[in-house]
Amino acid sequence: MTPDPTYDLTTVAVRAGEEARPVGSAPLAEPIYQSTVYAFPDLETLDRAMSGEQPAAFYYRNGTPNAATLERALAALEGTEAALVAASGMAAISAALLGVLKAGDHVVADSRLYGVSYALLAEEFPRLGIEVTFVDACDHTEVEGAFRDTTRVLHVESLTNPLLTVPDVPALAALAHGRDALLSVDNTFASPAMFRPAQHGADLVTHSVSKYLSGHSNAFGGVACGRADLIAAARTRLLRLGGTMSAFDAWMTMQGLKTLGLRMRAHSGNAQAVADVLANHPRVRAVYHPGLSEHPQFHLAMDLFPQGFGGMLSAEIDDAPGFVKAVAGRIPLAPSLADVMTTISWPWGTSHRALPEAERRRLGITPDLLRLSIGIEDIGDLLSDLEHGLES
Predict the structure, then answer these.
(1) Is 186 a catalytic residue?
(2) 236 pLDDT more than 70
(3) Out of 61, 102, 325, 362, which one is annotated catalytic?
(4) Active site residue 7
(5) Annotated catalytic residue, options 114, 118, 212, 288
(6) Whether 325 is catalytic
(7) What angle in degrees, to the nearest 10, is found between the helix axes of 247-257 and 65-78?
(8) Of these residues, 112, 196, 211, 237, which one is catalytic?
(9) Which residues, listed in sequence order, are joined to residue 276 by a DSSP beta bridge?
(10) Strand 82-86's sheet: what is its strand order?
(11) Which residue has the higher pLDDT, 85 or 25?
C-alpha cells in the first residue's frame, strides 16, 4: 500500500514499501514467507480460506507457503496423495498415529524402534488409553499373534535404528490390511531415494526431515505422508497440539531436498565400502549393514532396496571409547545422523538412553556399539580416517 503523503512518519514507517512485489518475473529460488498472519480483501475470501475451499495462507500455526511447498514435494517423492510437515519427526509420528487412534485402540509395534519412538508408544500412549504390544517385526508369526480385534496400526521402521534390520514391508502391509489395520512406516534411515514404503502397501510414511531429506544438519522438522483422509486427520491433531514447522526450516529443507538423489547415491556407495572393510578388520567384532551377505535379511534387503541402503551402519568395536578419541578431529561424535559429513553416534548413551539397560541389551544395543552415519567424502580419505582410529 502507498501511504498518504500527509501521514505522520510513524504511519509511513509501518506502511511504506509493502506494495513492492516482482512484476513480470518471479524469483527462481522460493522466498521465505516469515509472516505470521495474512490479510484478505473481503469476508468472502477469508471464509473460503478458513473452510479450505480456496487454499490460502492465513495464520502461521495453520501452515506457511514454504511448508505447503515442502508438503507437495514430499508427497510427490513418497508417491502419496498428501503430506503434512511438522516441527519435528516425533511431532509428525504423534500426529499421524493420533489421527487414527483413540482410547481403547491397540497398536502393534516393532521392539527395535528408535528410542524416543519406543518411549512414545510404551509410556505416553498408554496414558491416553491406547494399548501397545511390542514384537519382533521380522517374526511374522509373532506379529500376527499380537493382533487383537482392537488393533488399528502396525508401526515399524523401514531400516531399524541402530541395527539396520529390514522388516518385510509388503508382507507386513498384507498382514495388517487382512486384519483391517493400517501399516505405518518410519522411513527416515532410507529416504524415498532408496525406498518408498507406500509403493509396497504402507498407509502412513513418516520421516525426521532433519536427517537425509535436508541432509546438512541445519533444518529441523518431520513429515507424515499418506492418503488424503489420513493426512487431514493428522493435520487436525497437529494444529490442536501446536506442532507447526517453521517457515525457515521448511525453506532450508527444500534447499537440501534438491540434491537428495545425488547425495543418497554417494552415502550408499560409501557406506557399503566401509561396511566391507570393517567386516574384515580384526578389531571389529560385528558389523550391521544390509549389504553384507551375513546380514539376516540380506536377500530381502537386496529385493526391497535395489538402489542401495543409504549411509547408515553400526559396528561393535574393541575399545570403542579409544576409537572415538583416535578419530576426534577427523570424524565428529554427534548424536544425530545423515549429514554430508561422516559422524559417529553412541546409541547406548544417546538414542536409546531412556530404555532400561536390560531392554537395551536384549535388543543388541551394548556400550561397545557405535553407529556410523557415512557421509559423501572421498572414500579413500574416509577409509584412511577409520583405519587410523582402528590402529591407534
Answers:
(1) yes
(2) yes
(3) 61
(4) no
(5) 114
(6) no
(7) 40
(8) 211
(9) none
(10) 82-86, 222-226, 204-208, 182-186, 151-157, 106-110, 131-135
(11) 85
Q: Which of 186, 203, 249, 339 is catalytic?
A: 186
What 3 state SS string does the chain have? Answer: CCCCCCCCHHHHHHHCCCCCCCCCCCCCCCCCCCCCECCCCCHHHHHHHHHCCCCCCCEHHHCCHHHHHHHHHHHHHHCCCEEEEECCHHHHHHHHHHCCCCCCCEEEEECCCCHHHHHHHHHHHHHCCCEEEEECCCCHHHHHHHCCCCEEEEEEECCCCCCCCCCCHHHHHHHHHHCCCEEEEECCCCCCCCCCHHHHCCCEEEEECCCCCCCCCCCCCEEEEECHHHHHHHHHHHHHHCCCCCHHHHHHHHHHHCCHHHHHHHHHHHHHHHHHHHCCCCCEEEEECCCCCCCCCHHHHHHHCCCCCCCEEEEEECCHHHHHHHHCCCCCECCCCCCCCCEEECHHHCCCCCCCHHHHHHCCCCCCEEEEECCCCCHHHHHHHHHHHHHC
Taking 70 as the threshold, does the pLDDT of residue 23 lie above it? no
Kindly report, residue by residue over 347-370, the tens digit of the pLDDT. Answer: 999 989 988 899 899 989 999 999
Indicate the pLDDT class of residue 135, thresholds 50, 70 and 90. Answer: very high
pLDDT classification of 66: cutoffs 50, 70, 90: very high
Q: Is the pLDDT score of 22 beyond 70? A: no
> Of residues 351 and 125, which shows the higher confidence score?
125
Contact 297, 331 (CB under 8 A): no
